[in-house]
Design goal:
This protein is mainly beta. Helices cover about 10% and strands about 50% of the residues.
Amino acid sequence: AHYRVKELFKDVIVSVIEQYDSVFVYIISDKRAMINGDLKIKLMNFAGSVYFENSYLETVERDIVRCCLKYNKKFLTGDSLNLNNMVLHASFEYDHDVSSCNYYFVDPKDLTLQKPVITITGIGRHAFEIHSDKLAKNVFISTINSEINLSDNFFDLLPGERKVVRIMDDTKSFNLQVKKLVVKSLFDSYSK
């Protein structure tokens, strides 16, 4: 749970809220100075097909909650898209940092998840890259016989996204062996 809490305490957060027939994208900033950045919106299915994509230059005042975008839900999703198979990804890139949010139009139990093929590649002794061909929701990484402290865990991996995860335990030399890592996603909990 501390992985999610860490995200919530960032200086800048992107949030998506659906209300009635509209979808709102907010940027919440606790920065003490104004920031400029690029707000990107992408609507895609779980296999990675993009249905809507746009980018906006945004200026965000200091210490503010700002509604940056409002979309009519029908404009974004149309009548023919299966919302059980869609994710709206919003990201704000600023000052060499990124804050992002994945918004699902239905509850997790109603998502039409497909089995993702997740690959892991070691990067030195204390990091690895994780990649998925399809949406991998709530990715959980563990090891076979020992505990591991990672820079991130319990995250969503978008189709084609590559994420570097670092091993944070400095007290012992951890010789990363990719084959000892166990990776599960929400799909695995459905298929038992």
